[in-house]
Amino acid sequence: ATPVHRHEYQVPPYRVDSLELEFSLDEEETLVKSRLHICRNDGINPHEPLHLFGESMELLELSLDGKALRLGDYLLKSDGLSIALVPAQFTLEITTRLQPQLNTQLEGLYKSGGMFCTQCEAEGFRRITYFPDRPDVMSRYTTTVIADKARYPVLLSNGNPVERGDYDDGRHWVRWEDPFPKPSYLFALVAGDLACRRDTYVTTSGREVTLEIYTEHENIDKTAHAMASLKRSMRWDEEAYGLEYDLDIYMIVAVGDFNMGAMENKGLNIFNTQYVLASPDTATDTDFENVEAVIGHEYFHNWTGNRVTCRDWFQLSLKEGLTVFREQQFSAAMGSAAVKRINDVRILRNHQFPEDAGPMAHPVRPDSYIEINNFYTATVYNKGAEVIRMYHTLLGEAGFRRGVDLYFQRHDGQAVTCDDFLAAMADANNVDLSQFSLWYSQAGTPKLRVRDEYDPATQTYTLHVSQSCPPTPGQSEKKPFHLPLTVGLVDTDGKDLPLQLDGESHALDTAHRVLEIREAEQSFRFVNIPKRPRPSLLRGFSAPVELDYPYTAEDLAFLFAHDSDPFNRWEAGQRLMSDLLLEWTAKGIGKLPQPLLKAIQETLAHKALDAAFIAEAITPPTEAYLAEQMQTIDPLGIHASREALRQQLAQGLAKQWLSLYQELASDNTAYRPDGDGAGKRRLKNVALGYLSCLHSESEQTRCLEQFRQATNMTDQLAALALLADTEGEVADVALREFYERWQREPLVVDKWFRVQAMSKRSDALDRVVALIEHPAFELRNPNKVRALIGAFCQANPARFHAPDGQGYRFLADNIIALDGINPQIAARLAAPLSRWRRYDSKRQEQMKLELERILKTQKLSNDVHEIVSKSLA
Ligand code: B3K
Ligand code: ZN
């Protein structure tokens, strides 16, 4: 496969103003007839051939303006068909034959359970019919779906239903019209025997919109939360951005087999069941939050993605970074903004930072790719969202909104680029953002080094800031970034000092201020500082960088107790713990320092902090985060240190954990998945986790009791996870009970797999290997693969990196097995092996051997080939 390069972009020679599609769905084969109304674009040479992408289907008929074409009139290749000479304007009719029931890649038209559904982003439409399948070709779609009425009573596509009818042979049909021109990647179709939850929403301007959520019959009672989330999303987008929904109907369909989380098809979102279904007894608080976030995300795409779309796939972050940011703002507004920010940064650090430091590092707007599906990454999504957040921080709320308004004013109905977004931000605010554009083109996580000095004589305090960015594949030299550094100066009482820079007439009346960093080295001198302050740097994590400032343990304990910025308060605690854990990992486990114990104890007792925040603050940094801090990663050492810290905190504060647990467990209010309830459950279960570290029989009994008596999945699963970590037989008892109770709920069975995959038990790998054979496990189902194989290899580093290399072998075996079924999912699994250079020489050797073994596999997909070959390069 040859790479595609961003700079080779050319405008499409032909456009398709409108098309009519007709699907005859059946068990053995599906026929797709399409009638395309095609025009040559202005300025295009009349001899320019017409190229239509198409793959994995059979071409039955092709005619141009009613005249049948024969092979020779057109050229058929494995990636599509071309017609050498076409008129300036014409109609092309195409009939193709597909076998969706055999489509295991889950791209294009496929079957999930008993229903037909589609996934067309990025390049799935070309597996349905021949088409200029690129996002800058936008067309009006009319779609007729025909199928057996008994088996497929519900027939859906984009837009509004306009006509329907029955045939004599038991089939029926429905015609849909989407008035908005859209790229082919937003096309969708669903047919099945589905239940529907219906509701209505009235927009600010008074239009009534029908809302429908479709699921298999047994699941419809789990859709109330999704519906409520959808209405909240619609309201929020009106209030925060002045954006209203534009069709008369908005549909969501939940399917059990889905490569990603969900898909924003115009008017007809298709979702992984995981992000729709939620009931207190089968879904955790986190599931409830995720449903709300993903429903919001897909809804927000209607403007940021659908109304204004991407010119080409290199611009993916134009819609994804912006939509993730909007989703983050929405979730922050619905719950605890501080905890939301903590979790967003955790995702960035655990997933994006390692990607940016590895062989797959790429800019937010990549320059080339072999398989676009490999670029739906944490960099495009999460770092992309951080880039949007930086505009917001630099320009302020009002300035950001001016930029977004101008963006829609200029580009509604267009397919545009990241440069267009930046230009709207710059023009609306009259600022020069040319240096800021480096965030789109340079990969790598910048390092921000901050040093300070205080001069008591002049009462001035100076911050010296320098930045650098490590080399990444294809980019050895980097230019300095333009970024916002939000800072506060904390005095010895823990209060924020008024901030006045040298040369300013007075101090700003804010706790913190945004310093604009543009140079490789820059200094900022604050005046009227009576005593040496402690700097609180990068508040709210104002830029996606690694901060280096020589905080002492004392500084950190102080900021952990006092910082007015909740993110930095949490961050101080995390740094305090990670400094200790890295030291233990390097030099051997020692005794827990009293100041840290005291800091945790005081946080626990802090009345003004909410439960959800406390739960985050007293949880040590993840093993993934710690690994990133090491030159050569020692996964077992990190695990042992972290466990030792948990153990010592458990013992040192045993009384506190017990009383905290008892207090929270005695709360008998009915389950509600709101922020307050969820925060208290989280804190309770963190306390239960510390109690379990005491490894006593009575603690195990306490866990088992919570497991058996829990009235909601959050509490039950938290207890099960702790039990599954223990070496004795109780683990098996609990796991058996859980499976027996929930075996008919696929999403709960996923949790059961995940808990075992992430178990701290020494035999975790053996168990995972055995579970691959379990009747409930299916390599064809992406949720199952992620729950068992994905979780083990990505979230259980101590067992995955077992010194005998068996974890690596297990992963490679499964990548190879899965590649023939679903290459997209297979390629995603390979990420942990791609980081092989970060480990000791023995592990490097073992991981490299497995990568080479994968590469030697016959008929390897482009997807896996791209990741593995770039990893070895
Ligand atoms: N836009 C889809 C992702 C499609 C993935 C294609 N491999 C989901 C989302 O980001 O909303
Ligand atoms: Zn998205």
From TrEMBL:
It catalyses: Release of an N-terminal amino acid, Xaa-|-Yaa- from a peptide, amide or arylamide. Xaa is preferably Ala, but may be most amino acids including Pro (slow action). When a terminal hydrophobic residue is followed by a prolyl residue, the two may be released as an intact Xaa-Pro dipeptide. Keywords: Aminopeptidase, Hydrolase, Metal-binding, Metalloprotease, Protease, Zinc. Residues 554-873 form the Peptidase M1 alanyl aminopeptidase C-terminal domain. Pfam families: DUF3458, DUF3458_C, Peptidase_M1, Peptidase_M1_N. Residues 444-549 form the Peptidase M1 alanyl aminopeptidase Ig-like fold domain. GO terms for molecular function: alanyl aminopeptidase activity; metallopeptidase activity; zinc ion binding. Coiled coil: none annotated. Residues 226-436 form the Peptidase M1 membrane alanine aminopeptidase domain. Its cofactor is Zn(2+). Its EC number is 3.4.11.2. Residues 89-186 form the Aminopeptidase N-like N-terminal domain. GO terms for biological process: proteolysis. It comes from the Bacteria. Aminopeptidase N is involved in the degradation of intracellular peptides generated by protein breakdown during normal growth as well as in response to nutrient starvation. Belongs to the peptidase M1 family. PANTHER family: PUROMYCIN-SENSITIVE AMINOPEPTIDASE. This is Aminopeptidase N. It comes from Alkalilimnicola ehrlichii. The lineage of its organism: Bacteria, Pseudomonadati, Pseudomonadota, Gammaproteobacteria, Chromatiales.
